[in-house]
Design brief:
The protein is mainly alpha-helical. 48% of the residues lie in helices and 6% in strands. The protein contains eleven helices and six strands. The strands form three sheets. The protein has a two-stranded antiparallel sheet. It has a two-stranded antiparallel ribbon with strand order 2-3. The protein has a two-stranded antiparallel ribbon with strand order 5-6. It is globular, with a radius of gyration of 22 Å.
Amino acid sequence: MASPCDPTFVLSCAPCNVICSIIFQNCFDYTDQEFLNLMEKLNENLRIVSSTWIQVCNSFPILIGYFPGSHNKYLKNNDFFKSFVLRKIKEHQESLDINNPRDFIDCFLIKMEQEKHNQHSEFTIENLVMTVLDVFGAGTETTSTTLRYVDLLLKHPEVAAKVQEEIDLVVGRHWSPCMQDRSSMPYTDAVVHEIQRYIDLIPSNVPHAVTQDIKFRNYLFPKGMTVLISLTSVLHDKKEFPNPETFDPGHFLDESGNFKKSDYFMAFSSGKRICVGEGLACMELFLFLTTILQKFTLKSLVNPKDIDTTPGETEFVSVLPSYQLCFIPA
């Protein structure tokens, strides 16, 4: 019998290393102290940004300079991330080969060199740092937090069993799942979508700004106005998803058991500014979930009926409280 464990650490490290390979060209060992520091501060900032106090500061930024609070820790952690990224950029500058870009930073630096005479170029060191921080933070925490909701499969073991049955049928036990398998695994695809719909990871989306005066349904949105989209109202629409508060992969399956797309699936926002990492995140969620269920059977330490899948902090990101489970080798 496998020992109980909290899956948070490993489910955070794996997506983080995927992002690191894209940005920095290298993955970290899970015992690397620098990597552990990054993970600790990322998790800490996620908890802070999901707190009520941070939402108050967003609404009344004048408070930031006068009141002590968790926002100071958040800003300190951000300074740590910036120093780390700047150090990595310097290392890339010293070893850059314009004919052989290794990763995202190299590609950005090459573009900077190409536009060095353009005074209005957006390709600057400052923008590189901020872009890397955005990709690093968003690409790590959103995927790892979604994966932690694997406890939905603990609460619904019949769903996990059907996914494993489909994995056995399409992939087998001796080959690693790949993205080409997804088209032949409608139930698993539906489960991944339903997890994202059900958990409603970022209920109010990230803030967007209107780039010009816009009139919409007799309302005027002046240029520069901040707009928040209620993704919850779409993901939990009762007409599109019967019993939206219930976890049911059938929301994404037709009567024949084929995967059914929905225009109401907006887990990655909507419009032109939709999440740039949607494609990567979908690949990670499918591959990580299928690989885990191919190798292990998930066992809860409590009665499935007693498992609480209600998020803890939900002011910005739906963060799941810590829990433990057993990974039983399949």
